[in-house]
Amino acid sequence: MDNLLTMKQFNEENIMEILNYAEYLKRHGIRELPGKYLVSNLFFEPSTRTKLSFEIAERKLGLEIIQFDPGHSSTTKGETLFDTVKTLEALGVNAVVIRHPEKEYYKQLEGIKIPVFNGGDGTGQHPSQSLLDLFTIKEEFGYFQGLNVVIAGDLSHSRVAASNAEALQKLGANVQFVCPDEWSGDYETLSGWDNVIEQADVVMLLRVQHERHDEKMSFTKDQYHAQYGLTADRAAMMKENAIIMHPAPINWGVEIAESLTTHPKLRVYEAVENGVYIRAAAMEMILRGGNVHAQAAPKYLAI
């Protein structure tokens, strides 16, 4: 694995290897890598969790972060993404993390020799978010085969939905989708929660991505919440050991009822914590060509 671009690049074995190593790092701590690595984070879209999570993982790994601000770079003069990354490569940067509004932007980067970590590509994929979601589910249940997962919300605009649907189905989970018809995209969806919420092990809500909607929504926020959101009444119908997930930021009162902000089934902030370990695991494994710390390898593979 030379880059982290899309969940399509993973098979079940690859996914479990990263999850297991992230678990090892969470148990034993993230250690600085031998040698010196320079990394630059190129975020062309706003981000809190993903950007900070990558930065914290990088600092714990001992990487030196080369600051990049798109608003004060030559991209404002028309420089292409390829030229920007090629310039960083020529300057000695060892890896880049990129979030970009264009779907599959990484196809422009053929010929780039340093690793690229996809921090989200438009409505395409968000592999590190998917991996941290999988890690959170694995921590909770210990397995994926046969789990009932419901992904609900703005499916056609969600890179998280695309990544998680791909990965969860590879791992043997039963995945169902709930959303308004106009946001179903290529998914076979349900128009409501009937006969779904009571059987779900994982309920994953998606943010309504207003910034990606050209059209005016055909329903109000209250109407959306009533039909497609996780209301307090629906949460009360969930199985005892079921969990609630959301990639955040959350539109409280839209995707999830405001009364559920501290609900014991909610795993939003546990997932944020797990993001640091997942991103550290992926960066170490790619930067070191799959050769993690020698003393760790036999241990984490046995988890």
Automatic annotation (TrEMBL):
<feature type="binding site">
    <location>
        <position position="49"/>
    </location>
    <ligand>
        <name>carbamoyl phosphate</name>
    </ligand>
</feature>
<feature type="binding site">
    <location>
        <position position="159"/>
    </location>
    <ligand>
        <name>L-aspartate</name>
    </ligand>
</feature>
<comment type="subunit">
    <text>Heterododecamer (2C3:3R2) of six catalytic PyrB chains organized as two trimers (C3), and six regulatory PyrI chains organized as three dimers (R2).</text>
</comment>
<comment type="function">
    <text>Catalyzes the condensation of carbamoyl phosphate and aspartate to form carbamoyl aspartate and inorganic phosphate, the committed step in the de novo pyrimidine nucleotide biosynthesis pathway.</text>
</comment>
<feature type="binding site">
    <location>
        <position position="50"/>
    </location>
    <ligand>
        <name>carbamoyl phosphate</name>
    </ligand>
</feature>
<keyword id="KW-0665">Pyrimidine biosynthesis</keyword>
<dbReference type="Pfam" id="PF02729">
    <property type="entry name" value="OTCace_N"/>
</dbReference>
<protein>
    <recommendedName>
        <fullName>Aspartate carbamoyltransferase</fullName>
        <ecNumber>2.1.3.2</ecNumber>
    </recommendedName>
</protein>
<keyword id="KW-0808">Transferase</keyword>
<dbReference type="InterPro" id="IPR006130">
    <property type="entry name" value="Asp/Orn_carbamoylTrfase"/>
</dbReference>
<feature type="binding site">
    <location>
        <position position="77"/>
    </location>
    <ligand>
        <name>L-aspartate</name>
    </ligand>
</feature>
<feature type="binding site">
    <location>
        <position position="99"/>
    </location>
    <ligand>
        <name>carbamoyl phosphate</name>
    </ligand>
</feature>
<comment type="pathway">
    <text>Pyrimidine metabolism; UMP biosynthesis via de novo pathway; (S)-dihydroorotate from bicarbonate: step 2/3.</text>
</comment>
<dbReference type="InterPro" id="IPR002082">
    <property type="entry name" value="Asp_carbamoyltransf"/>
</dbReference>
<feature type="binding site">
    <location>
        <position position="129"/>
    </location>
    <ligand>
        <name>carbamoyl phosphate</name>
    </ligand>
</feature>
<feature type="binding site">
    <location>
        <position position="126"/>
    </location>
    <ligand>
        <name>carbamoyl phosphate</name>
    </ligand>
</feature>
<dbReference type="InterPro" id="IPR006132">
    <property type="entry name" value="Asp/Orn_carbamoyltranf_P-bd"/>
</dbReference>
<feature type="binding site">
    <location>
        <position position="207"/>
    </location>
    <ligand>
        <name>L-aspartate</name>
    </ligand>
</feature>
<feature type="domain" description="Aspartate/ornithine carbamoyltransferase Asp/Orn-binding">
    <location>
        <begin position="145"/>
        <end position="285"/>
    </location>
</feature>
<dbReference type="GO" id="GO:0004070">
    <property type="term" value="F:aspartate carbamoyltransferase activity"/>
</dbReference>
<feature type="domain" description="Aspartate/ornithine carbamoyltransferase carbamoyl-P binding">
    <location>
        <begin position="3"/>
        <end position="139"/>
    </location>
</feature>
<comment type="similarity">
    <text>Belongs to the aspartate/ornithine carbamoyltransferase superfamily. ATCase family.</text>
</comment>
<dbReference type="InterPro" id="IPR006131">
    <property type="entry name" value="Asp_carbamoyltransf_Asp/Orn-bd"/>
</dbReference>
<dbReference type="Pfam" id="PF00185">
    <property type="entry name" value="OTCace"/>
</dbReference>
<feature type="binding site">
    <location>
        <position position="248"/>
    </location>
    <ligand>
        <name>carbamoyl phosphate</name>
    </ligand>
</feature>
<feature type="binding site">
    <location>
        <position position="249"/>
    </location>
    <ligand>
        <name>carbamoyl phosphate</name>
    </ligand>
</feature>
<dbReference type="InterPro" id="IPR036901">
    <property type="entry name" value="Asp/Orn_carbamoylTrfase_sf"/>
</dbReference>
